[in-house]
Specification:
α3 crosses α9, α4 (about 120-130) runs parallel beside α5 and α6 (about 175-190) runs parallel beside α8. Helices cover about 45% and strands about 15% of the residues. The longest helix is centred in the N-terminal third of the chain and has 18 residues, at about 15-30. It has a single domain, classed as Trimethylamine methyltransferase-like (TIM Barrel, Alpha-Beta Barrel), CATH 3.20.20.480. A hairpin with a 4-residue loop joins β2 (about 50) and β3 (about 55-60). It is built from nine helices and twelve strands. The radius of gyration is 19 Å and the shape is globular.
C-alpha cells in the first residue's frame, strides 16, 4: 500500500482545532441540522435530539456527538477482493484513490468529447486496478447509457467485474443501497463475510449548509445496519455554502459529518 506517515503540514494549531470543535458542538446543539426522512427523524428523536417538525430542524446535544465520536472505530479496514490490496485507514496514514463521477470523456479513438458510458467506467476500473499508486477505486465516470433508475447498480456491476481493489460507491436511496450491499455480499461470499472483510464502502454528500436529505439519511441508515464503512463527504464551499474563512468552513463540514455519524 502507498501509506504516507505523518505529513508535516500544520495549518491549524491545537488551540485552533479545539476552538473549531467547540464551535461545531455549539452549531449542532443550538442551530442544528435540517433533516429529511421519517426514519431518520425518529432515530434522532429517540436518541434525545430536539426535533422541530415544522422546519425539520434537529438539534443534537453535545453528549450525543461526543458519544458518537468515542464509539467510532480508531481504524477502518477497507478490504479488497485480493488481500494484497487491503487498506487500513487510521491515524496519520494517507492512502490514495481516484475520484471524479465525471459525465464526459474524450474518446480514445476519435478524440471527440462525448457522454461517458458503462464501458468507459469498466475501462477506468481496469486501469486503476493496474496502477499501483491507486489504493481504492471510486467511480471515475458515470454510466449514462443505461436507465437512470438502475444506473448506480450498472456502475457497481462494471466496477466489481473489473477490479480486485476496494470499491467505494455512491447510491441515492434505500432500495438501491440495499441492492448494492447485496451485490457486495454476493462477491464476498455472504453478508457475514462482507462485514468481516468489507470489500465495498459507501459515500454520501450532505447538502451544505447543514442539510441531510433523504438521499443522505437513507444511505446512512442502511450502511450502518449492514456494518460496512461509510464516507460522509461534505461539499461545503468556502464563500458559497459556508463561511469564506477556513475555520468557518471547517465548522460546517465538521457539523455535517458528525451529525451523520450520530445518525449512524
Amino acid at each position: 500500500m502507498n501509506y504516507i506517515e505523518g505529513i508535516g503540514l500544520e495549518l491549524l494549531s491545537r488551540q485552533d482545532l479545539e476552538a473549531i470543535h467547540e464551535a461545531t458542538l455549539k452549531v449542532l446543539e443550538q442551530v442544528g441540522l435540517k433533516v429529511f426522512g421519517e426514519e431518520a427523524l425518529e432515530i434522532y428523536g429517540t436518541a434525545g435530539c430536539q426535533i422541530d417538525r415544522n422546519t425539520n430542524m434537529v438539534k443534537i446535544p453535545r453528549h450525543l456527538v461526543e458519544d458518537a465520536i468515542i464509539s467510532s472505530p480508531g481504524k477502518i479496514l477497507m478490504a479488497a477482493r485480493d488481500p494484497r490490496y487491503d487498506v487500513i485507514v487510521e491515524g496519520t496514514k494517507v492512502v490514495f484513490t481516484n475520484f471524479g463521477t465525471g459525465t464526459m470523456v474524450e474518446d480514445l479513438e476519435t478524440g471527440a468529447l462525448r457522454p461517458s458510458t458503462k464501458a468507459d467506467l469498466a475501462d477506468t476500473a481496469r486501469l486503476c486496478d493496474a496502477i499501483d499508486e491507486v489504493d481504492i477505486y471510486t467511480i471515475a465516470v458515470t454510466a449514462q447509457d443505461v436507465p437512470e433508475a438502475t444506473r448506480e447498480l450498472h456502475e457497481a456491476e462494471a466496477v466489481l467485474n473489473n477490479t480486485v481493489k476496494h470499491f467505494g460507491h455512491d447510491t441515492q436511496d434505500t432500495a438501491t443501497t440495499r441492492r448494492f450491499i447485496e451485490m457486495g455480499a454476493a462477491v464476498a461470499g455472504g453478508m457475514d463475510k462482507l462485514k468481516e472483510r468489507p470489500i465495498i464502502s459507501m459515500g454520501t454528500c450532505p447538502n451544505s449548509p447543514l442539510e441531510l436529505h433523504t438521499n443522505n439519511t437513507e444511505v446512512i441508515i442502511e450502511v450502518a445496519r449492514a456494518g460496512i464503512p461509510l464516507d460522509i463527504l461534505s461539499m461545503a464551499m468556502a464563500g458559497g455554502t459556508s463561511p469564506v474563512t477556513l475555520a468557518g468552513t471547517l465548522v460546517i463540514t465538521n457539523a455535517e459529518i458528525l451529525g451523520g455519524i450520530v445518525l449512524a
